[in-house]
Amino acid sequence: MKTFPAIWVLGLIFSAAIAAFGQQPGLELSRSDLDKHTYYFDVEGNALTGEGAKFLVSEFAKSQFVIIGEYHGSLRISEFTEAAIPRLHESGFRTLALEVGPISVQLLRELSTPHDATAKKLHDFNTKYLARGERNTFTPIPFFGNVEDADFLAAASLRKWKLIGLDQEFAFGYLPLIDRMFSNLDRRGQRDLAELQRIVTDQIKEFYAGDLAKDRDRSNGNDMYSRIQKSAEVSRFLDEAAKRSSNNVPIAEAIRRTTELYRLNVVRQYYDTNRGRVGYMKENLGRGFDENGFDAKKDKMLLKMGSVHTGRGFSPLSLFEIGNTLSELADLNGSSSLHISFGTRFYTDGGKEVDALGDKAGFLYRFGSLTQMAERDRWTVIDLRPLREAVFYHRKFKLDDVVNELFKNHDLLIIPKLETDPTANYDMK
């Protein structure tokens, strides 16, 4: 008869007990279940106010890493970030990590100095390098196309926070990178490469136009990323500019790595592109720590990034992402990380107000067991942590899979008040 170590037997008994709990029908998560774990606050005059603000500030003070898991393009989340930065500063935070490339973050440092010129400098930069087509319009540095984004960046600059760029570069942001490489050359280098730079700039604009056209053709390697890789002129400019200035070496490398990650996505090698991107984020995190003198054992950092990347454990992309890395690092240090996800209930669409709970077929309705606590004119924060035992050990509630993942990966859910359109920080060409 085969025998098992006692610890295995205990584990099997424990797993069976959890499974038994799971066989119970479960209840809907009610307002009474959430009431004592829900707080309300507001953002007034670039400051957090109300009972919920006190709760958040207390949580900030306990944490080494505060992680904002956002949905992109939100006026409200940028407003929150601007208001949170002064309170985080009081708790010792001095570093902001962003979902932009390491070269783009160098540009953001310059564009946000002095702090009171940030919005104007970003406006001019965005307008100069705007990629506008029949299908979409893109600013050269993602997630910094609005006035509200400039405002939170200025709040960090005012306090002389250091910036870390974690992501790949943006494909529609190559032109300022090419210009930066050219400006890094000495006078002779600029004279020798001026014509080549002009050709490369024109080519990239042509590639952009093709990709942004309504009838774009991405078949048979005709996507803009393959075209950039195949361009002899682009390759020669990157090689020659890097050879003539060591400052251009990381820029050339960033462009090449970024282009390949985008190309893998076009040919539907999704796991490879996501795995490569996440690995690159972690490289950039370590490099950013080193370049900024960040002591990973004790220094504090705010991270603002799409929520798919910011949770603990296995992400929706089937990877252990940057949020998990910071969580493990905090555990190793005997500190803590605070993972905040943002959700939506009330928003405007084409000038019309919408309540997401009014559309039972919509994706946002799936979060209704939590967003039922939201109010139109106040911000809501729900502390998910006290309910984890009931959710996972007692299987007390019947939850949608997306809500279940929130409980696993994030600590707090913040639901802004009525979400409205942000203010574009550029002129249309």
pLDDT averaged over residues: 93
Identify the CATH class of one domain.
Alpha Beta
Name the quaternary structure: single chain
**What's the Cα radius of gyration?**
24 Å
The portion of residues assigned to helices is: 40-55%
How would you characterize the largest beta sheet?
A: 9 strands, mixed
As residue ranges, the low-confidence spans are 1-25
- How is the largest sheet built, in terms of strand order? 2-1-12-13-9-3-8-4-7
In CATH, the architecture of one domain is: 3-Layer(aba) Sandwich
At the fold tier of CATH, the topology name of one domain is Rossmann fold
Tell me what you see in this structure.
The chain is of the alpha/beta class. Helices cover 49% and strands 14% of the residues. It has helices at residues 6-22, 31-34, 51-62, 75-90, 102-111, 118-129, 147-158, 174-183, 187-212, 224-230, 232-244, 249-266, 270-291, 322-333, 368-371, 388-393, 401-409, and strands spanning 38-44, 47-49, 65-70, 93-98, 131-132, 137-138, 162-165, 300-306, 337-342, 346-349, 352-355, 379-383, 412-415. The strands form three sheets. The protein has a nine-stranded mixed beta sheet with strand order 2-1-12-13-9-3-8-4-7, sandwiched between helices. The protein has a two-stranded antiparallel sheet with strand order 5-6. The longest helix is centred in the middle third of the chain and has 26 residues, at 187-212.
Summarize it.
With 429 residues, the protein is of the alpha/beta class. It has helices at residues 6-22, 31-34, 51-62, 75-90, 102-111, 118-129, 147-158, 174-183, 187-212, 224-230, 232-244, 249-266, 270-291, 322-333, 368-371, 388-393, 401-409, and strands at 38-44, 47-49, 65-70, 93-98, 131-132, 137-138, 162-165, 300-306, 337-342, 346-349, 352-355, 379-383, 412-415. The strands form three sheets. A nine-stranded mixed sheet has the order 2-1-12-13-9-3-8-4-7, sandwiched between helices. Strands 5-6 form a two-stranded antiparallel sheet. It has a two-stranded antiparallel ribbon with strand order 10-11.
